[in-house]
Amino acid sequence: MKIAALVCRILLGLTFLVFGLNGLFPFIPQGPMPTGPAGQFLGVLISTHYIVVPSAVMVVTGALFLVNRFVPLALVLIAPVIVNILVFHLCMNPGGIVPGTLVTLFWFVVALRERSASSGLMRARNPN
């Protein structure tokens, strides 16, 4: 489990660092824009520069994963981005869901390894 978590953490770091940097400074050749709602959604994200926010979060968390510092914080910061990736693909572009699913699995492996850092979040509070 320790080696699997290490591999998943490094893969998460590389994935989010590269694609976050690509969101900030496009360097990966892109195919044609998707059609329909997916294309409209991406067009709005790009034209309003909203894409800078999740891309910056991806760069920061990717770096944190790679240097193995503040990994629990990186897990918390990247979780909403992963949820949005999954929801985008489920609702608008189902053909591209495989990478998002893999990233989600990697996230769960790393989160399982770091579960002691978030154990307080999972403790039921005494109502009294």
Describe the structure.
It is built from five helices and no strands. The protein has helices at residues 2-24, 36-47, 52-67, 71-91, 97-113. It has one domain.
Q: Note poorly predicted spans.
A: none
Termini distance?
Answer: 39 Å
* Structural class category: mainly alpha
Q: Name the average pLDDT.
A: 94
- Report the helical percentage: 55-70%
Question: Whole-number radius of gyration?
Answer: 16 Å
Counted up, domains total 1
Output the helix-strand order.
Answer: HHHHH
Question: Describe the biggest sheet?
Answer: none
Count up the helices: 5
Shape category: globular
Number of strands: 0
Proportion of residues in β-strands: under 5%
Briefly say what this structure is.
The protein is mainly alpha-helical. The chain is built from 5 helices and no strands.
